[in-house]
């Protein structure tokens, strides 16, 4: 076997853990070091140069952040409202689109699929700047619906692509069977196809939710300063030099992202994943 | 109602969102770049190159360095996951490398700002381990900070794509080369990487465009000059309400991003011809 050629015996393969350990250790330091540093900042009451660790630990900044005037409750509520609305609107748009792209004969199908990638494929900063101008004219700037619309345009690629893949992974014969025993097209869709595509749609909903929760640039131009959201709170606290509040906000944004990274494979099964973008 | 018509009807609302909320403002920004006080002209570009030539070069260099590093690291990670011979080591790496993938850029900016600063954790650890003297500690919150932030956040994404492509390769050639005595590095460079070139390039182009659009990282890590184009655009709009120059800067970053995509398209067409 291959391994016997490269390593003579047990001693060699034990020795191999030295370079491996050094590389993995460095990698772990650069990945987890910054995250650990962030957690330290959230509970640091006093921390200044040249001390490598905080001088005093405590939760007083958490109290400050979550106090009625701390801004976090308002930002968190706004962020959640916007994210939930973004998911609802995106799915309402993506479910019919995904179904059509997966099942119906469409002219220019691959072009349509590509069109949803456009917002990710162009540098989008000036786009947000100009949307803010349009929204200002029609009174949408600084409103929750305005921010939701911006987030929808950005998250639609995940919603549509994953929904299309989810519908493609459902066996069309099941829907046909329901039709054959007399179900109306709508009934067959809602009773058979939609429930079978649900795990994939759930994955696209989570993607869109996170995209919206984390989105900074669009919220910065369209939402601020009227619609305060977590990324904006993080930014203002950070630029004001208040690292504790910035770190607590960052942690609030970080936790859902990390949880999602760990569970994503449960929702996005290989059969759906292999059909994304096709 | 024919199936085609129904299909288009179902797709139309979602397409309308993209048309009105992305393509229309994109066209507006392209047109706006050439508008000076109501008339068409090159004024915005003259001003842009006067004020921001340094920043344009700075942005291109930073993003090029980051893209190259992301490419190298992704190949290394994907390569080890594919060719690594110790299952435990492979499992550790697979568990380790993905963490930053879904962390938002704004959080990356904050996290690395405290980690890389002069009194930050990186310098502290190096000092405590005796690797550097306290007096030699320098802040990394300049161009290096931006590169580190981009590489930190984008590598897992490209590595995931590359590792996926490598995993689906036919293993026979790899095993054959190994059995003939080719080193793993040689197998990686001469057999594996050429076969996943397409995926790697797509991942790197997507990363390139993402990095061209990120506003939070340059604002949080490197607020001094020279800085990235995105920070300049925000500054033009917020401080001067100067949409002309902001749009011109936007068009320049658009041209930069599309030229990268164009080089890639040309190369892949040549390959097929």
Automatic annotation (TrEMBL), chain A:
It is a multi-pass membrane protein. Keywords: Cell inner membrane, Cell membrane, Membrane, Transmembrane, Transmembrane helix, Transport. Its main location: membrane. The chain crosses the membrane at residues 21-44, 80-102, 111-136, 148-167, 188-210, 243-264. One of its GO terms (biological process) is transmembrane transport. Residues 76-264 form the ABC transmembrane type-1 domain. It is found in: Cell inner membrane; Cell membrane. GO terms for cellular component: plasma membrane. Belongs to the binding-protein-dependent transport system permease family. This is ABC-type spermidine/putrescine transport system permease subunit II. It comes from Neorhizobium alkalisoli.
From TrEMBL, chain B:
It is a multi-pass membrane protein. Belongs to the binding-protein-dependent transport system permease family. CysTW subfamily. It holds the Pfam family BPD_transp_1. Residues 56-264 form the ABC transmembrane type-1 domain. The keyword Transmembrane applies. One of its GO terms (biological process) is transmembrane transport. It is found in: Cell membrane. GO terms for cellular component: plasma membrane. It comes from the Bacteria. This is Carbohydrate ABC transporter membrane protein 1 (CUT1 family).
